[in-house]
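Hey, can you fold this?
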Amino acid sequence: MGTGNTFGRTFRISTWGESHGGGVGVTLDGCPPRLPLNRDEIQVDLDRRRPGQSRITTPRNEADSVEILSGITPDDRTTGTPIAMLVRNKDQRSSDYLDNDMKVAYRPSHADATYDAKYGVRAVAGGGRSSARETIGRVAAGAVARKILSLYNGIEVLAYVSKVQDIGSNVNDDTFTMADVDANIVRCPDEAAAELMLARIDEIRKTGNSIGGVVTCVARNVPAGWGSPVFDKLEADLAKACMSIPAAKGFESGDGFEGTLLSGKDHNDEFYIDPVTGATRTRTNRSGGIQGGISNGENIVIHVAFKPTSTIGQAQGTVTRDGQEVELRGKGRHDPCVLPRAVPMVEAMVSLTLVDALMQQVAQCELIPNEAAVLDRPNPMGPTVSREGGPNRELVEAGSLGKVNKDGSVSQRVDEE
């Protein structure tokens, strides 16, 4: 496996293949055995990613039909051994790249120049490994991860286009569904915003230009405790996963940069006890479901910014491989806006990251049952758990947690470096 083509620690994928080669695919290692899984479940996510879906995606005509080569029994059960999946390329047109100036000139802001600088050779046709066609393997493996998460704790990973240029949206992250997302070709559940976004994309598309924006992803029902302190924080792993997607240029967790405009009092997510389950919850979710690099049981919410597609049909200044300044007009079939097809890509990378975190959590922290008395355990956190025996009705002894104020609140002195 080549350097940089493998992702994950325990639940690991290695993608392979090129945009204009014989096909692209993935080898998935670390999948649990006996998982019910069939080809159709994987194909659903690949169909959402494939080209040619609408007028605002590349017109390349690919069915992206997946072939499962190993790791699954004839009666659709995983064996625990590597799962290899292949999608054959059917509609590549290498002449779009080889019979014009794109053969020798670098596309501005594309990976053409940097791949050549690194390797000293590049796959001109289709961009090789830098093509978004590489993400087929991610999405196929992400469908397996999605199945594991759903079976484990009813976890849902759903993404949508939340912004196109300056056109935002208003979506309830607690309630939107995949059907809501896929109800329009922009993949924005806010229908009014979707119409404005579509009009903007069409306007840009007709001029031979491209446009970018933001994809928001929500993971519901993730248990508290996933992720690790310091270098392996959950949002750090999610950031690497999402920033590895082609055209991704920014990442936010929770309120992200907008949180810098608030004071600590306004930004903090206050805790409370759910009166029915007795679990610890937060009244707000500005942290995006992650605190200290570890999930807290609330919705995990991230945002990924995608730049405009590099290859456009307008003339741009560039240079050739031998150092000559030229003008280049992009050829080939490309998305005027990558966002609608980026939605399943983000879902896949988030799902892969979460399954990896799940396996590490079980291996390190859940092998030995916590048999301490209920009062000696941390109170369970999140909407999918409940406290044994219900909410703790015991009164806190005055002064046991610190100074008791006149209003009944408790003051504690905390020294931090």
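Oh, and this one too while you're at it.
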Amino acid sequence: PDVCPVKSGKVRVAQPCMTSKAAVVRWNNLRPKDPMWPLVLACVGLGVSTRAHPPGPPDFNCSEAAAAGAFTPIVLRNGDVVATFIRYGAGVTHLLFPDANGKQQDVILGFDDQSFYCTGGPTAQHPYFGASIGRVANRIANGSFTLDSVTYDLPLNDHGIDTLHGGWVGFDRHIWKILDQNESSVTFGTHSADGEQGFPGSVDITIQHTLTADNEWKLHYTGRAETKTVLAMTNHVYFNLNANEDGATTVEKHTLTMPTASQVVAVDSSLIPTGKLTSVAQPEYSYLDFRQGKPIGQDINKGTVTPAGGYDNGWVFAGWQAGEMQENVATVHSPITGISVSMSTDQPSVQVYTGNFLNATDPTSRVARKKSQCHGSGPCYYAWRGAVTLEAQQYPDAVHHSTFPSIVLQPSSPYEQHTIYKFSSK
């Protein structure tokens, strides 16, 4: 049928119907930028999937964004940190910090041509480098949720299965306003209208990026809703603390320590939460145990998020209390440069992604490194497992699991989030 029948409640937006969930091939190990993606589309055309795919991404009007100054660099400095931001996606594009030898290193992934944050670059990739994510970070199963007996349908922008990072036009696609700025801080603001990407109610958002004399990058998010809605944000910065020194292109030798991350959010083959939490203390899940710290590459091949392993998991912090900061819940260290970044946050979990779909060898999908991370005369590309994210956030797909912390936002209770990344080297 063209439109799914509704058993209960109301439906705000009709979506094409899946006649058999079992018939949908869940290609969790592929992404639209994967070289195998054309084969997936061909299989869909041959009838492997019975679900009609939603329309592709809209025209993002990147030339208009450039004319509006969306990609003009905003450079902040304090302590030993120099960071560059743009209004497009309220994103961070460069973050420089001295290594143990005093050499300034750019420790995050991104593009030299900042218009690529809109266009995706020559290979049409959009890996969310450094972007602000919302309305809801991570995945929403089946691209729909129910709030007060009303069902809201969202874009299925991840394999035609779920809504990822707020849909085709999430906050990463907004041209944010500059509300305040000085030499070490910038505050961005944006308005998300009622019905944007299918979400109910309008929301006014601010994000303040601040560099401190203690070499911290502080993020302070606020959100005020006109009516009851959902909101759960994060920043999608990709770290590589090697900065490609000594040809070290991956983060496999980085050590990751998460002393209170005693559980992970259990997911199915499409990375959709099952509603359960899994203890990393169980022997069969020891590859997910970073409480004592270990090299990211030590057990990475045991990961289950792709056939080749890797991490794209949500770790839950023991003892979390709403509104309370948890210090140093995740620390990453590069033995090559001596640089460390330690994250503190008031969020209950962190999504750690290890660049499983970066690819330096395929000319159809590879992403050129910034010049600041390319040493030598030849071209450089971001490598497989060439980054690690520390995305402080609420549990993924919280809208479908009453046992997860709620992401419902009431007009009477503004949204607030604090996350801090502190840099050091030795």
